[in-house]
Amino acid sequence: MGDIEDTFTDFRQAFSNAYLGNGYLKLRFLLQDHLPISVLSSKYNTGMNLFNSLKDRGDISFTDVNIMSEIAKVTKNATAKSCVKAFVEDVGLRYDASEGITLSSYRKTLYNAMDEITEVECGDVHNLTAYYGLGHLGFQNKWDVVFHLEKEVKLNDTRVKWKRFANQLNTKAQIILLEYNPSGADDTEGAPSISTGAQATTSTDGGICRQSSTQNSDLTSQELMEIAKKLGFDWEELAIAGLGFKKPDIDRLKMDNRNSIIGAIFGMLDAWSKKVSVAEHTRRSQLVNALKKIERNDLAEEVEINNIL
């Protein structure tokens, strides 16, 4: 038994060593659903301390390292994957792929979005700290910002909170977050009217966020795809309140594009575009008015001045 425990200890240490520096912040983030805040918030914590805590709680053992294997896969950490593989081979038949603790779909979705969150000037971390009033706390990285927000705001309590958070991020992060639907109450209010984060196409020039503009008359399929990517959580509200779709139409689009939410949004925009009478107004002006109706003035402006592509 002693040899097995020693092997398991060595494995936990080797696995933890694969997550030094910012890697530890990733471990803390991924294990947030399984360890108390008192453990996660310890100033001098290490990955080994986190896994020792899981062991003490009975959540991992030499016959159940499933969550560690899952962490290695989610983080795409080759060293961690090798550690798991070597340990399983060493333990041999004593290893049992039992139903231990796992990473939730919420946790994995948010982690994948975190990979896309930017820390550059005028980037996502700037938008998050400004929107949630966190500037005085002096956060230096995205992991600490989101760790704080999860504790204080409870991001996945409702769709409203989830959307407010997502709306501060860039398009790639928003697309990932679209795949998760919070289990709390449904959203009954419009999108925040803040023109920051993924809602604005920005570039940095001497520390100033700027936008460019050109003018064109009507919408192309390429533009509709870009709009689909930027529309995010507001697409159903736009479809029903702004473009004349019914709930069964939305359900059918989701069913036809069950593996791609962006495909569903583009399908909605494309279907609308094909049925619009151009004689009334241009498609562009009609879409701009619909976006303003649901308070997506940021995206309406981009569409109006043809700043989507």
Radius of gyration: 23 Å
Shape: elongated
Mean pLDDT value:
82
Helix tally equals 17
Helix/strand-derived category reads: mainly alpha
- Strand order of the biggest β-sheet: 1-2
> How many strands, which pairing sense, and closed or not: the largest β-sheet?
2 strands, antiparallel
Spell out the helices and strands N to C: HHHHHHHHHHHEEHHHHHH
Total beta-strand segments = 2
Distance between the termini: 63 Å
Question: Which ranges are low-confidence, i.e. pLDDT below 50, for 5 or more consecutive residues?
Answer: 185-216
The share of residues in helices is 55-70%
Beta content: under 5%
What keywords describe this structure?
2 strands; single chain; two-stranded antiparallel sheet; mainly alpha; 17 helices; 309 residues
Question: Care to describe what's here?
Answer:
By secondary structure, the protein is an all-alpha fold. Helices cover 55% and strands 2% of the residues. It has helices at 2-17, 22-30, 37-40, 47-56, 66-75, 78-91, 105-114, 124-131, 142-152, 159-166, 171-178, 221-231, 235-242, 247-256, 261-275, 283-293, 297-304; strands at residues 203-205, 208-210. It has a two-stranded antiparallel ribbon. Strand 1 and strand 2 (208-210) form a beta hairpin. Helix 7 packs antiparallel against helix 11 (171-178) and helix 16 packs antiparallel against helix 17 (297-304). The longest helix has 16 residues, at 2-17. It starts with a helix and ends in a 5-residue tail after the last helix. Residues 185-216 have low confidence and may be disordered.
